[in-house]
């Protein structure tokens, strides 16, 4: 019964953006639907970060409901009993609502993607994209939902939490790519096409850095080094990389079941911090180079600004002891960087296709 209630909640939330899209004038309702879904996905990624940063991931220790109910309001007795039994534990009424709001938004996102599938196949002869795109997105969000369930049932196992984050950003990026395909684009100068490999490398470096950041967050290693630019007063502090990057283990434990050491947490933090220099230098150089193209100037400036923002918020997280707002901005900045690089890659790919088309005519 509560599964039906959860579904109705997701549908009701999804009806708000669906109604907005339907009431908009113009023929390109599918493109508007994809953009609205992309925005909701970005919001969901941020809310997922908020859920993790507020330690609300186990606010409802079962899945998909909360103590077998569709909302914390219905399950309030079980929540209060759990909180009374373990006041410092992960279950409180506030955390339960945060966790369930995250699930409600995920359900609404699933409804919007199902709507995309229906519209895409009904209008497949007139759409500029393949109807299989939304189908692939639907499969992806189902996989993402499975990892969301395992995040809870496996008690925030770091590798599951990290994969859950990466899948969420993959969904965000795929939706953004689909949205770009549904709208006209300004074609950059032909010379911009030679920078596509550099953009791809930048995107790959960013994905690695996001994965490292997810691993830091999943292992609560943000404050493993609280000084800068050194760590515990040393450029190369004692570190245990083997234990720190042991993937399949419980939160806070080694594979053998012992408590994870401080040296392992330092290794996790140190790797993310120092790889950030590699990513920043590459993206800053790329942004400066791409500013020469008028059609890419806004995106290039955005790239420079976001890299600067990420460096500042990353440093602030260390020096200010991981404030919630700064951590959220840092997470959101990473997602925006991903979107921006996808947009750059798409525009440069259009430029390369234009060059090839011109060469073929000659």
Folded structure, characterized:
This protein has helices spanning 2-23, 29-53, 76-85, 93-122, 132-153, 158-181, 196-218, 241-244, 262-290, 297-319, 324-361. The chain has two domains: 1-184, no CATH class; 189-362, no CATH class. By secondary structure, the chain is an all-alpha fold. The model has no long low-confidence stretch (mean pLDDT 91). It is 69% helix and 0% strand. The chain is built from eleven helices and no strands.
Give the SSE map.
Layout: H1 2-23, H2 29-53, H3 76-85, H4 93-122, H5 132-153, H6 158-181, H7 196-218, H8 241-244, H9 262-290, H10 297-319, H11 324-361
Helix pairs in contact: 1-2, 1-4, 2-4, 2-6, 2-11, 4-5, 5-6, 6-7, 6-11, 7-9, 7-11, 9-10, 10-11
Into which percent range does the helicity of residues fall? 55-70%
The largest sheet is:
none
DSSP E strands, number: 0
Q: Based on CA inertia axes, which overall geometry fits? A: flat
**SSE order, as H and E?**
HHHHHHHHHHH
Proportion of beta-strand residues: under 5%
Tally of contiguous helical segments: 11
**Separation, N- and C-terminal Cα atoms:** 66 Å
Indicate the structural class: mainly alpha
Give the low-confidence spans.
none
Q: Report the radius of gyration as a whole number of Å.
A: 22 Å
How many domains make up the coordinates?
Answer: 2
Mean pLDDT: 91
């Amino acid at each position: 019964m509560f599964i039906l209630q959860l579904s109705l909640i997701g549908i009701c939330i999804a009806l708000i953006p669906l109604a907005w899209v339907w009431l908009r004038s113009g023929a390109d309702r599918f493109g508007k639907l994809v953009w609205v879904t992309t925005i909701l996905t970005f919001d969901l990624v941020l809310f997922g970060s908020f859920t993790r940063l507020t330690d609300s991931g186990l606010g409802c220790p079962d899945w998909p409901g909360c103590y077998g109910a569709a909302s914390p309001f219905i399950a309030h007795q079980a929540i209060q009993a759990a909180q009374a039994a373990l006041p410092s534990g992960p279950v409180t009424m506030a955390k339960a609502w945060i966790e369930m709001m995250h699930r409600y938004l995920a359900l609404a996102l699933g409804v919007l993607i199902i709507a995309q599938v229906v519209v895409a196949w009904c209008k497949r002869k007139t759409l500029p994209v393949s109807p299989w795109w939304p189908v692939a997105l639907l499969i992806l969000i189902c996989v993402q939902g499975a990892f969301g369930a395992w995040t809870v049932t496996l008690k925030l196992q770091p590798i599951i939490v990290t994969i859950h984050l990466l899948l969420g950003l993959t969904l965000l990026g795929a939706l953004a790519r689909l949205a770009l395909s549904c709208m006209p684009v300004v074609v950059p100068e032909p010379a911009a096409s030679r920078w596509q490999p550099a953009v791809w490398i930048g995107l790959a470096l960013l994905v690695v850095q996001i994965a490292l950041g997810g691993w830091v967050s999943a292992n609560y290693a943000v404050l493993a080094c609280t000084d800068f630019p050194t760590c515990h007063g040393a450029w190369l502090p004692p570190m245990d990389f083997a234990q720190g990057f042991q993937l399949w283990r419980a939160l806070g434990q080694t594979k053998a079941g012992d408590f994870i050491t401080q040296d392992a947490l330092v290794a996790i933090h140190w790797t993310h911090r120092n790889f950030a220099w590699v990513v920043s230098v590459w993206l800053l150089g790329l942004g400066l180079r791409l500013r020469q193209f008028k059609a890419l100037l806004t995106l290039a400036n955005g790239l420079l600004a976001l890299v600067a923002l990420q460096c500042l918020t990353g440093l602030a997280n260390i020096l200010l002891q991981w404030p919630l707002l700064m951590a959220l901005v840092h997470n959101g900045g990473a997602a925006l960087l991903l979107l921006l690089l996808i947009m750059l890659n798409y525009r440069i790919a259009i430029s390369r296709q234009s060059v090839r088309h011109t060469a073929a005519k000659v």
